[in-house]
Amino acid sequence: MTIPQSETLSTRAMNRVFDDTTATYKFYWLLSLLDMHVKEQKSKMLALEVAARMVAYAWYPIEYFHLLFGKGDSMETIIPEVKRLTNITVDDKLEDKKNIISDYVFSNRQVKNEVKKLIKYVPFKFLTSWLGSLSDYDITNLSQSFTNDCLYSLTGTAEKLTVTINPKWSQYLKTNYDILRDFALWNLTLFLQAKNPNVPNVAGKLIRPEKRDALTAQTKFWNKVIEIGGPITCIYTDTSLGIKQFELDHFMPWSFVSHNQNWNLIPANGSINSSKSNRIPELKHYLPKMAKEQHKALRLYIPVSKEKDAILNEYYALGASPKDLMQMNDEAFLQKFYDTFSPLSQMALNMGFQQF
Hints:
The protein folds into two domains: 11-205, no CATH class; 216-351, no CATH class. It is built from 18 helices and seven strands. The protein has a three-stranded antiparallel β-sheet. The protein has a two-stranded antiparallel ribbon with strand order 4-5. Strands 6-7 form a two-stranded antiparallel ribbon. The protein has helices at 11-15, 25-39, 47-63, 75-86, 94-105, 109-116, 122-125, 128-131, 136-143, 167-175, 177-195, 216-229, 254-257, 272-276, 283-301, 310-313, 322-327, 330-351, and strands at 44-46, 152-155, 162-165, 232-233, 240-241, 247-250, 265-268. Helix 2 (25-39) runs antiparallel to helix 11 and helix 3 (47-63) crosses helix 4 (75-86). The chain is mainly α and 356 residues long. Helix content is 53%, strand content 6%.
């Protein structure tokens, strides 16, 4: 992915900012600069303020999705420490996180010391595609006259380090904000996918969604199954569940799979979501129950379904057609579920998800 070219700006340099990237800092630095200049309309800002927003951006993929950033990336140690000191929750919105972290940066020495780690290199390294691989001192000096039309200048040192956006770039950043943001997120996705090669949908795990998709079609599926075959037994509580008497549970938590496909959903007692949360069910105990209810559901639903039913198409992800799955014996169907869920479960546990 490339950004819109300009005859008057050094957009070729901007296209190269992520060429030699060994950590997530540059991605989050650009995302934060864009937000502060375009959304907050700031042309001059303390690097510490930008770093506070960087931490807020990285919070969700680390704390909620447990993505690995790499051994050399300080985010994996900074965020748990800032969490301990501020009591920020993963559910807090990006702007709320940023505001809380910024407040703590200027009122709490420990938080400031953690966030300050992010401005030791990235403000200078980000400018190397314009100014070359020089010392921080030389980059600072050259930036102050916007040499080579670099994106911003640097003044001050340490916690007083200040970033000033080059006026020549201002309109370009505002006009192309969405494209530049996608440019940073796309490159961040490629970087994190390499660090998390077996994790599904890394791109969907970078930004906290405003709201999750409704499970309307999936709920209709399970209500139809119950209408035809009678109540379902909750695999967690062994209680009987009738029509509209259940909540749909993501067997493998949404925070890991990041999708609502029906083969990973099961009707459950309404109390289970809060106690299970985003923990991983113990497969030996729960998966046979899950497979039994799923198999029964397909056998009941497929004969009365339409020829092209989108919710049934989701089952192709298991490596067989819905009809083939329906016609399997119970042992073969359970094995298909073990083949699907065992590697997912192990990956999630390796990433730090807890077991239920």
